[in-house]
Amino acid sequence: MKKDFTPTVLDLGPLQIYLARHFGFCYGVENAIEIAFRTVDENPGKRIFLLSEMIHNPQVNADLQAHGVQFLQTNYGNQLISFDELIPDDIVIIPAFGTTLELEKKLEDIGIQTEKFDTTCPFVEKVWNRSEQIAKKNYTIIIHGKPKHEETRATFSRAAFFAPSVVVKDMEQAIELGKYIKGEKPPSQFYEEFKGQHSEDFSVTKDLQRIGVVNQTTMLASDTQAIADHLKQMMIEKYKLSDQNAEERFADTRDTLCYATLENQQAVTGMLQTDADLAIVVGGYNSSNTSHLVELCEEKLPAYFISSEEKIISSKEILHYNFHTKQEILTSDFLPNKQPVKILITSGASCPDALVEGVINKLASFYKTSKTTEEIIDKFS
Ligand code: SF4
After folding, report:
1. Which terminus of the chain has fewer Cβ atoms in its 10 Å neighbourhood, N or C?
2. pTM of the model
3. Which residues are known catalytic residues?
4. Residue having the nearest C-alpha atom to atom 5 of ligand 1
């Protein structure tokens, strides 16, 4: 059945909010948060650590810290608390994006049980399983992801355990990899170009003869698809294959996309059909899936990436994150001087719904609306 991705309209008179049909928390994040808080409740007196941020949302992480949970590492793998300080009785929670085999082993060597407090999302595990399956059929694994992102590092470590593996961060890198596949670039250049992104002993001549593409689940689905299509085409050209027999050298891995990421992205595409004035995307600034939603929006209209309603300073000013330059910037007169103002709103997979509600209420406070947001929302419950 074709899914409906038309946005939900909250008509407040002078302000019209078009809320994405799917937004916010996904199964994996809800599950991880629930396990983390349950662990805190059920283990009074124990030291509880998180390997790194639970999810990419500052409010959720601050809430966990307020309950006494400590972070062992930053998102980029820098140590905040030394592993030497851990004792077997400590609890270490593995976050939703999983962890590397190396770290898992390190914790096990200390005597810490990781399985009981592992909140790795089943959709991330699905990518790991798929990588293992294609590795067993002798395909090299190409991972489309951000090389430093925890999930990509975790997926890479598991893929590299089974087969030669390479991370490509974008289409530009995929095009360069394609040149190595076709023998258009000297293999010796590969090691500098893909430094830190390939498995040990990777052989450009031997390990690019059969490949399959998996992804960091929060990448743009359309980007992963385009990268997979390009690399498949390179294999077809190099080995004189056709679409029918391409699988001899290119594994079909289309089913590794996470449903939540995909639905949130499709809902944004649906919402962008509306002739709106601006878009607001709510989420943590280091959240990969949220920045992809912003990327989709900004192709069409002014898009503001904010972490909470507090970033809407007044009806005149908004403090928002430019994920290209990684800076927060202040924009004046972000609301057009017209009525009704039409605003598209969505949020990332790690953003609590309460933050979206806060943003809607803040916007509504700038207008003389005939109904309260509660009255409007009640209609949908
Ligand atoms: S975005 Fe997808 S893969 Fe990531 S935690 Fe959520 S459901 Fe799991």
Report:
1. N
2. 0.85
3. 151
4. 28
